[in-house]
């Protein structure tokens, strides 16, 4: 697709969404016993030389595909993010382009403005307060170890995992985040995921399959769960069930950085409270968009575009997954090269 055609299509989508063009906005291993194993320093593939990560941390990420940095985000910042989320839930602010999600077990009669009815907000790039998370120097310091100095914030989420109703719908199936992304290379993409309170198996912590980031992108689809599954919660159908799982237990402010091919998910929230975390997927600005037609990602492209058509009345048949992601992308450090 040439640049003029892409720009024209993007303007059409922006007009429908009432948005604007994207602009600039200027560790430690877990205690779960995962071993760095044997490692040759010259074989670094997933981390960059910038003197931020220790050799031990680099080895751990290279071998396992994730890394926890303790106490990275301050209590004060987390409290500010929590207050802004509550304002969104009460409809006091309505950021442009924000996607509000609810668990499938919440009926329409329960849609009164409350944080008890909203389980996730995505695409908060137009909310100045929440988007501050993506620009925190302490976050970007580590992000640069994976993306390089030119950094784009691509996908933003604040997750409010609800207490499970008994149907197990608060689970998130094992998946790879790259399934949702039409840009590459995967080695220049990383997620920063920060716990907003203590998170363990009782309230549905992250579970990861260490080392799976070294594999390929697998086909995803909705799991056949008896209690049903939430929209867009695609999962891997054929992962190795013998692969050792690690439950990532975190304290408030702890941040886990992980590779987009790492297989991960989360369990049920068996507590009575809501489990909160805030996250952003970052990519090096040198990444390139790809066409996912004819690939295993075609199903998620179809679903995302169908949601866009229903929600915003966008009927341009030439729109692609790339166009949607171009709306979300924001420069947070350095120069905007491609994305």
Structural topology:
Layout: H1 3-17, H2 55-64, E1 66-69, H3 75-89, E2 99-101, E3 120-122, H4 128-131, H5 137-147, E4 151-161, E5 172-175, E6 183-184, E7 189-195, E8 206-208, E9 220-221, E10 235-236, E11 246-248, E12 255-258, E13 264-266, E14 275-284, E15 288-289, H6 298-312, H7 321-328, E16 330-333
Antiparallel strand pairs: 1-12, 2-3, 3-4, 4-14, 4-16, 5-13, 6-15, 7-12, 7-14, 8-11, 8-13, 9-10
Helix pairs in contact: 1-7
Explain what this protein looks like in three dimensions:
The protein has 339 residues and is α+β, with helices and mostly antiparallel strands. It has helices at residues 3-17, 55-64, 75-89, 128-131, 137-147, 298-312, 321-328; strands at residues 66-69, 99-101, 120-122, 151-161, 172-175, 183-184, 189-195, 206-208, 220-221, 235-236, 246-248, 255-258, 264-266, 275-284, 288-289, 330-333. The longest helix has 15 residues, at 3-17. The protein is globular. The chain starts with a helix and ends in a 6-residue tail after the last strand. This is Phytanoyl-CoA dioxygenase, peroxisomal isoform X1. Keywords: Dioxygenase, Oxidoreductase.
């Amino acid at each position: 697709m040439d640049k003029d055609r892409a720009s024209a299509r993007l303007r059409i989508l922006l007009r429908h969404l009432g948005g604007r063009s994207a602009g600039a906005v200027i560790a430690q291993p877990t205690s779960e016993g995962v071993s760095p194993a044997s490692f040759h320093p010259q074989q670094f593939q997933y981390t960059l030389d910038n003197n931020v990560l220790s050799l031990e941390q680099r080895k751990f990420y290279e071998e396992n595909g994730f890394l926890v940095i303790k106490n990275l985000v301050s209590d004060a910042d987390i409290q500010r993010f929590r207050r802004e989320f509550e304002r969104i839930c009460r409809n006091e602010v309505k950021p442009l382009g924000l996607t509000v999600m609810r668990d499938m077990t919440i009926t329409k009669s329960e849609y009164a403005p409350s944080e008890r009815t909203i389980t996730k907000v995505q695409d908060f790039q137009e909310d100045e307060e929440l988007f501050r998370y993506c620009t925190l120097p302490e976050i970007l310091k580590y992000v640069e170890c994976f993306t390089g100095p030119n950094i784009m914030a691509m996908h933003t989420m604040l997750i409010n995992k609800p207490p499970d109703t008994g149907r197990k719908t608060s689970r998130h199936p094992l998946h790879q985040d790259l399934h949702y992304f039409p840009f590459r290379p995967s080695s220049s993409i990383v997620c920063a995921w920060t716990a907003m309170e203590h998170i363990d198996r009782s309230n549905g912590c992250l579970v990861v399959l260490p080392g799976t980031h070294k594999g390929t992108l697998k086909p995803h689809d909705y799991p056949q769960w008896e209690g049903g599954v939430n929209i867009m919660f695609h999962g891997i159908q054929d992962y190795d069930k013998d692969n050792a799982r690690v439950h990532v237990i975190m304290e408030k402010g702890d941040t886990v950085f992980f590779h987009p091919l790492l297989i991960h998910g989360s369990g049920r929230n068996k507590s009575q409270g809501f489990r909160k975390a805030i996250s952003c997927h970052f990519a090096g600005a040198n990444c390139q968009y790809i066409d996912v037609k004819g690939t295993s990602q075609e199903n998620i492209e179809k679903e995302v575009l169908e949601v866009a058509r229903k929600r915003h009345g966008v009927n341009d048949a030439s729109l692609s997954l790339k166009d949607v992601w171009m709306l979300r992308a924001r420069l947070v450090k350095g120069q905007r090269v491609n994305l």
